[in-house]
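Pipeline run #58 for the internal structure catalog. This entry was flagged by the ingest filter as a single-chain record with no existing model, so it goes straight to prediction. Upstream metadata was stripped on purpose; only the residue string is passed forward. Reviewer on rotation: M.T. Logging verbosity set to normal.
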Amino acid sequence: MANFRYVAKSMDGKTVRGTMEASGESSLLQQLKEQGLFLVEAKDKDNTKKYKKFVSAQLAGLCREMSALLVSGISMVRALEIISEEEGISKAQKEVYTDILKDLKRGVSLSEAMEARGCFPDLMLGMVRSGEGSGTIDMVMNRLAKHYDRESRLNRQVQSAMTYPVVLLVMCALVVILIMTFILPQFEELFLAMETLPMPTMILMAASDFLIQDWYVALFVLFVGGVFLRIVSKIYQVRRILDYGKIHMPVAGKLNKVIYTARFARTLSSLYSSGMPIVAALETAGATVGNVYVEEQFQQVGTTVRSGVPLSQALREVDGFVLKLSSAILVGEESGRLDSMLESTAITMEEEAEAATKRLVTLLEPVLICFMAILVGFIIIAVMLPIYESYATIEGAA
């Protein structure tokens, strides 16, 4: 059985789009006919080529150019043709735009064509779909460009801030390997001449011998360990436990809450401002937080809001957000300016998220330095301890 995405016409001439499972196109045609629909186009959803996910900078560039072209009165198809012919884009991007163009020329909507490629985030798909329904696709693209510009800037700041800790960690590993494989063997004859060795020295020498003689085993263990952690981290229950710890750990937990709140506030603001209903916007925004423990709580949030409970009260129960978010939304609900309040809250929380990210990295630097000092200190003590003990023995004998 194949999963088809189809475009059909009803008896009164209306266009109907959807997906249906069928053994083949003829079977699909028959099923649609039984529903009073006439097939216009069908595409095997499972055979649609999938591409690598677009990063924030690529999404921002696409949305910015699309918004500018649409505002100037150019059609969607022509705008995408212009973007796909630019010299600065990669080959993969050009293939994506070409595939989307083919679908647009067949009458497929932009949101469906983008969804079929599998390289655009749910937030973008939801907002484009909302813009198509309201006829404000140019405004939606402008909002998306601003959203992904901010996200790209935050990602660059995180990468820049993490450069020093990563370099420090690599240098620490190289120093330890150098000491264990080149310097410690120089003391081996001296240590073998001693009757007994302290436990730290015995451990260190055993580790040194292992790295020199069985280094390939160490590499294999590291490789297997990395693969194992990668597989285990994809298990939902394991990810849930890890993500729960991210918001409840000392110091860093509070900083992570600020980052998650900022991400949610910006996404909800963008979706709601584009005209998407608040419940649907909640479901989409909740899935973009980046923490499965927080995301799973939005099933209850959506149900609570549908039952008539104010959004501010429903979000107050979410474990993983700062209370400032629900307080700001409460003001927006009481004043009848929820859209503008969400926008200002998103800006404020993003500024706090940038500061929180810098504090998190600043906190990480001394931790790595202390770790490196303890490790190197242990090596020095393990080397010097038997030497001092031998001197003490000689002095005692004299």
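catalog note: The CA atoms of residues 200 and 382 lie 5 Å apart.
catalog note: The longest strand covers residues 2-9.
status: ready for reviewer M.T.
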